[in-house]
Amino acid sequence: MATSTTRVATAQAQRYLTQLCKHWAHKFAVTHGDGRGEIPFGEERFCRLAADAEGLDITVEADADALPRLQEVVIDHLKRFAFREDLGAPVWSLAG
What does the domain layout of the chain look like in residue ranges? Predict the structure, then answer.
């Protein structure tokens, strides 16, 4: 599995975390609360979210071939919810 992370600067991080989790909760066993969320997109594909007052940390895990697509899907959905603000282009960092 490969892991990548990005941080999106926004004062609305908690709101977006909640929206993303609720959006996918109808299809996946999503958990969220206390500024954190986890979306299991299927076998060995995860998105973990953490919100604070300055931004939203996003971590995605998947096999190396699926990782870029999962990053794209998560960011595309985030940008739909955040259409009133410019979140910029995410800079993803591969972990470990």
Answer: 2-84
